[in-house]
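On clarity, I found the account of how folds are encoded harder to follow than it need be. For illustration, here is how one protein appears when written out as sequence plus structure tokens:

:::
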Amino acid sequence: MSPELIDRFAAIVGPANALRDPADQERYLVEWRGLWHGETPVVLRPGSTAEVARILELAHETGTRIVPQGGNTGLVGGQVPAGDEVLVSLGRMKRIRSVDPAGDTIIVDAGATLSEVQQAAEDVDRLFPLSLASEGSCQIGGNLATNAGGTAVLAYGTMRDLVLGLEVVLADGRIWNGLRTLRKDNTGYDLRHLFVGSEGTLGIVTGAALKLFPKPRSRVTAMAATPSPADALRLFSVLRGTAGGTLTTFEILPRIGLDFVLRHAAGTRDPFGAPHDWYLLIEVSSGVEEATARDALEADLAGAFEEGLLLDAVVARSGNQASAFWRLREMLSEVQSHEGGSIKHDVSVPVAKVPEFLARAGEAVIELLPEARLVPFGHLGDGNIHFNVSQPPGMDKARFLSMWDEMNERVHGVAAALGGSISAEHGIGQLKRRLLPRVKDPVEYELMLAIKRTLDPQGLLNPGKVLELKE
């Protein structure tokens, strides 16, 4: 890119917000797992929707490729530029534009972090329910671009279910103002859903109108040990019947995952006196008093124990104890890096098929690599399992990671055979772009390509991500 063109882009955001020095750019270019290290001639940090529009207008005029970025917490390389692309970071756009507790809505800039939006809801005695381990740094725009899920999907749905309206800058610099907060608007195509989950390939989200919810009067958290995933599934059915919509979390994790956390996360401790093969993190968020909610959950767990669905259970008696339980789950992704290489799978299957998926995927991996350490965990209640495989002790890391594609093929094959998806909440990005045409219905994939060609005919927005476009 010519210095003159870089100067034109820099003039839009001001010299202080046009980063050209590689040292200043570094934190925007490295994906936290280290799978991608990008390059860019300049990182632009716009401070308003108008500046984003001017950037894309200039890009459209000059044929410049653009990579939008939120908090740089993505796990599939969707936010990393390849070299000649201008990186547009939304981190300066952090306004909470308005909060309406009566209508249970909030309008925010795309660069607001998830935790900032949660706090703005808390300030008016409301709840924004999306919850992720990266909530202190991930941004709303990125959450929308990847249709983030997290730990509360069971009760509140994914990001797609939490958005009422969007403000989006299109590839030619036009601004679509769709920041409506209506719960009902039956006036034709609902364009917001084109952009949710599109990973910045159709437009750059700059603002969002989101749903808020009444704050629960109580939250009761429990850790439980279960004999098997099949028993966990039966317990899930029981709790869905008794707790209904107040059951907000139902997570599963294996003993090896808990061992990793206890070994590498300071201040953690085993909730039980003896080891078990499988653990559950359960939370009920209720409109009744905490004591009443706790009594109800304890009664349900006691009944499950009598039926052989549980081996042990501990219900948190304080906020600190509940936080300690949550930390065991939230640290699972981070601590795996201390055990060597990790081959990741973010898949979903119908909830009733989770036990079968775990068994068949495990068999497929062990057949390929008998010494592999299986670390499957995640959201049993919505069918999303992070089927991770850790490097065998003593095995060369590079040799292990060279098996990524072959192992993916086996695990994804099991998920597909059970009617599942190869990406439940992390997106496609670069990591799974070449897999997408093989798992999508051909007509569906053609429709996706047609939408891309219509909204971004020059292919300037986040090139090399999601879709395989013919040059």
